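Consider the tokenized backbone below.
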């Protein structure tokens, strides 16, 4: 079982603003943000339990290049939350990578949306519940 996940970002302030907005739509909040010597880090979670971290080295001079095939899926409790996640992400500067909708190839109730964050990471919100 995975306890938490960290990604590197090229512009900490930009990513902090992006994830503050986008993850709030899924019930996540920023649990902490700090400077650790030359590294800026922030953590997000469903309460005070950080499970998703972003970080940037101050001396980093090149853009982050996400590996092909890497993506992060955040669980949404409703299909509406997937829709609002997608709308918030696009409004915050993300690139569309799959509009909200069913993906029945995974299972009949797999409702998801995909965006590329400011660094090009493939970020997904997914709801496994049937439509109410």
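A designed sequence for it:
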């Amino acid at each position: 079982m995975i306890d938490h996940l960290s990604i590197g970002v090229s512009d900490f302030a930009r990513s902090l603003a992006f994830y503050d907005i986008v993850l709030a739509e899924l019930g996540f909040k920023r649990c902490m943000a700090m400077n650790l010597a030359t590294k800026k880090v922030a953590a997000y979670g469903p309460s005070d339990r950080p499970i998703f971290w972003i970080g940037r080295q101050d001396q980093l001079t090149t853009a982050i290049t996400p590996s092909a095939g890497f993506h992060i899926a955040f669980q949404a409790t409703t299909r509406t939350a997937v829709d609002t996640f997608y709308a918030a992400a696009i409004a915050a500067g993300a690139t569309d990578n799959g509009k909200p909708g069913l993906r029945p190839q995974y299972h009949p109730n797999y409702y998801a949306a995909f965006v590329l964050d400011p660094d090009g990471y493939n970020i997904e919100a997914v709801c496994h519940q049937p439509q109410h």
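The chain has a mean pLDDT of 90.
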